[in-house]
Amino acid sequence: MSRLSFRPRPLDVNKKIPIVKSIKDFEDDDVLTSTRLRLVSDADSEVHQIASKKAASEIPTPEFVVVDTYEKDYSRTFSQPASYLRARGARSEIGEFLDYDLDNEDEDWLHDFNKEGKNLAAEKLEAIIFKLEVLDHKARERAGVITPTLSAAIPVLLTSDAAIEALQSLSIQYGVFLSIYNYWKEKRERWQKPVTRRLQPPPPVNDTNPYNVFRPREKAHRLHTRRVMNLALMQLQRRENNVQSFEKLRQVRRNLDQAKAILEALIKREEKKRELLDGEVSVQRIQMKYKHETELMEDDYLQAKLASIEEEFFDSDGNNRGVVSTRPHFVEESSSASAARRLRHE
Hints:
Elements: H1 29-43, H2 46-57, H3 70-73, H4 104-115, H5 122-143, H6 160-166, H7 174-191, H8 226-238, H9 243-345
């Protein structure tokens, strides 16, 4: 065995890395090449190798069906425009996207507000509240009072004058806008946090409220020794199974059941949508099928009509010719009858 020498080579993503499993793998490349060639020549022929290469180079293609009426059903109506086609941006790129929906409290306030003779749409109220939330968040960013976690009440820094100046493009009356601003500010101070979920900071890590689920999880990597496990077991045993904990667990169970019912309703809705789509596709296929069948029936009817007209024409022509040809026969019969009467008379 020759002396081995290794030198670093750059890795190639398209080349497999050789794995050495025994000392026999350290043989020279020449010996390996000659042995491999001898084994291949003894086992298979060159014709078989060429056939296997051709079989390996074949690319599988999916099956297709030729539709004879495709050009008739789908006409080429597209014309090359003079300019490029404009693609519509995503929702985040469009300024009209809103990330706020009215809750029951907002709907009640809007109902009472419209009773006074106002005509404020729900979509406009959503747009104004969402824009007020975004403007207040930007004002807190400029003031440097952005809190990383929801540990204290978040103040409202957006003033009514700044909001009116920023939302002049909405073309809304001053009194209506001021009423919406006062309602939003009162709700914000009552909630002590933004009403839009995306702008709310996450709760602190040490928050034990199970309903504040959107908080960062920080797992400490501890060794699970027997002492640690015993301490955890003792802490579990010290917990009191009181009525308050039982009621909390029942509330969590009810919430999970409601979420399960909502998910089942969503699944049923999507299944109905799928069935409706399948039905529409089936109806369109049947319409296309009967469209071609009616065209074929019309063609057959026209051909049969033409054939019947031709037959009637030939029949009428044949009758006329039959009258002309039978006239001499009638004359011959009349002459033979007169000859018979003459013989009887004699």
